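Thread: "does anyone have the structure for this chain?"

Original post by V.I.:
We have the sequence but no experimental structure in hand. Need at least a predicted one for the grant figures.
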Amino acid sequence: MIQRLKNKHVLLGITGSIAAYKACIVLRMLQNAGAEVRVMMTDAARHFVGKWTFEALTQHEVAGDLFPENRVVKTEHVHLAEWADLLLICPATANCIGKTAAGIADDFLTTAIMASRAPVLLAPAMDAQMVQNKVFIRNCGILRDMGYHVLETGSGHLASGLTGPGRLENPEVIVDYVIKLLTPPSRLFSKRVCISAGPTREHIDDVRFISNASSGKTGAALAEEAFFRGADVTLVSGPVDIRTNPGIHVDSVLDTESMEMRIGHYWPDTDILVMTAAVSDFRPEDRIKGKTKKTGHENWPLKLVPTTDILKKLSGSRTRQLLVGFALESSDALDNARKKLKSKSLDLICLNEISDSHKPFASESNEITLIDRDENVEKLPMLPKEELAVRIWNKIETLMDDS
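Reply from O.Q.:
Generated one for you, tokens below.
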């Protein structure tokens, strides 16, 4: 795992919600990402999780008393607020959000929020009726207008027995937003990025299809990295099961025709298109209705026709867009990748080589060679796909500087 939060200080505030136990998971994930974490709790929060749990996890005392008997730092709420690169209130109750919106600072946590000049991210958790209350909705709007970051709640089974909105957002999503807020400014900020991922399926009949083993993980890693760097990201994905942050718009497709249609929809407003999808090169000429019986088809001829080369087609109508393609090759790899770079008028092509020892689709890591529009070649070592995404976007940003 990349330690994206190395040398970052996160002040984790915990308020009185049944979801307070999930703050332990969030804390560990922040630490695994490299962050140093300190904790502050309200009195109500201690009814749900004891402070000793968080002291054991952080090796620091939990803050919470504005007027401690044994004072080490006289204004600890100010000291911690200045120490923090980001304040994360997780879970944040309706009470905490209401007081923050009104500027009330009557306990350690709300006083620290008031004293902070760092970004503040609030992850609400409460019952469904409270989330839907007009006062709560207004308070969230007030905070967002003032520059606070307020996550939406998840939906599902609640402590009250109801099912609906109000659940604390998934810890992975919360940590993703922390990373996004603490990632340095990038050339990708506010750029519209469209990424394709996964395989396509070309149906022979209603049951059988032609496809490949693409996992979509490279595309998902590129989408996540672009999200962290501040881009407006759309992921057009074939039929794969990949986790993405809710801040990434996912458009699911099935075959090459639907992928072409959806990418074409986003194309006019796209700044950067990255085609990682393993799009089928061929499809059956005719799709058969129903299921074809095995009996009578022991020697079943299947006529295939080429599918549309989406990237080549779009390159003919480009205006300002930067185009990145992927090439999967098993022989004469470098020469074939160079030919694709030129024939499709790409700014960058990422070469995957298939060999007996390396199967890109079946691996959590990959070895890629980058070839840019000036035919500069950079061979990357075998790296986890999230680290490859960092290296690829670094290269794309240098091409943005030159364009």
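V.I.: this helps a lot. The chain has a mean pLDDT of 92.
O.Q.: and Residues 157 and 163 are 4 Å apart (CA to CA).
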